[in-house]
């Protein structure tokens, strides 16, 4: 009952805070103006408020403070999303915010939960017939140090957690180009991770109840923002909105028994699109962190899909993959992940082929 109530509170507070965020964004000039901030990935032609992360932040923070006891790991989470909110609001105001500086600050935000003890101590062994053991331990290499008292760095566990958080925030951030797309994906992923934690709780892991509550709080806040981000969007998430929700998903995947594969299965299309785009830009001789209009959602727009169709497509695929991830065991998840990734890759190749042909025709006719 508390889980449903917490999700409802996060939803309502975000839904109430977002209209206020829209007014604040307009008053302080935190808007996306195509004339002032030209960007090849933009699909909006009118001025639209940014700063969507503010409403999401308020909803998640309020629900955490109301329903969860404040422990060290939650302090790390709150510290991380606070840094992301500040970065995002600055990015919303400044016309040209260096992506390299953003990445540096993103690493700083990711350090908060890692320093609070959120690390990937183990991963499920996907190949028990090849590698002995049910899990693969990552917490055996420890480096103690003194800084106002004794501390320790669990090298592999902390390093992998840091890379995971940063990577997932970038994956989600690159999948917010169409109205409703990003919050649809994050809502489905958070719900999947919430049900995963409930499964683990029913198997005897009492700590998973609070993790499930945190997951449904994230889903509630994401859904509350989706009300205003659905096409035609009244507000867009900006850097803060996408990274705060992605940050929460990355943490939840770790807290749900290091179920990174489950999150990647649900996010198969955004993940493969991220990897494809990253290397495509490098092969084209460009920096991978500078945006372009080559993501899958852009190519689907070029093919004639509407923003609602694209968002519903992403949501439907994510929901089907999430249901599959909850029904299979750890060993089968690897094959599900591989199958989903291959299918996503084929889809992106097909869309790129069509998009490339379309762009060549445009250049010829122009």
Mind sketching the topology for me?
Layout: H1 2-27, E1 31-32, E2 48-49, H2 53-67, H3 72-93, H4 99-115, E3 122-124, E4 135-137, E5 142-146, E6 150-154, H5 155-173, H6 181-202, H7 208-229, H8 238-255, H9 260-266, H10 268-283, H11 296-302, H12 307-327, H13 330-365
Antiparallel strand pairs: 1-2, 3-4, 5-6
InterPro entries: Glycosyl_transferase_4
Keywords: Cell membrane, Magnesium, Membrane, Metal-binding, Transferase, Transmembrane, Transmembrane helix
Cofactor: Mg(2+)
Description:
The protein is mostly helical and 366 residues long. It has one domain (2-259). It is 68% helix and 5% strand. It has helices at 2-27, 53-67, 72-93, 99-115, 155-173, 181-202, 208-229, 238-255, 260-266, 268-283, 296-302, 307-327, 330-365, and strands at residues 31-32, 48-49, 122-124, 135-137, 142-146, 150-154. Strands 1-2 form a two-stranded antiparallel sheet. A two-stranded antiparallel ribbon has the order 3-4. It has a two-stranded antiparallel ribbon with strand order 5-6. β5 (142-146) and β6 (150-154) form a beta hairpin. It is globular, with a radius of gyration of 20 Å. The model is unreliable at 355-366 (pLDDT under 50).
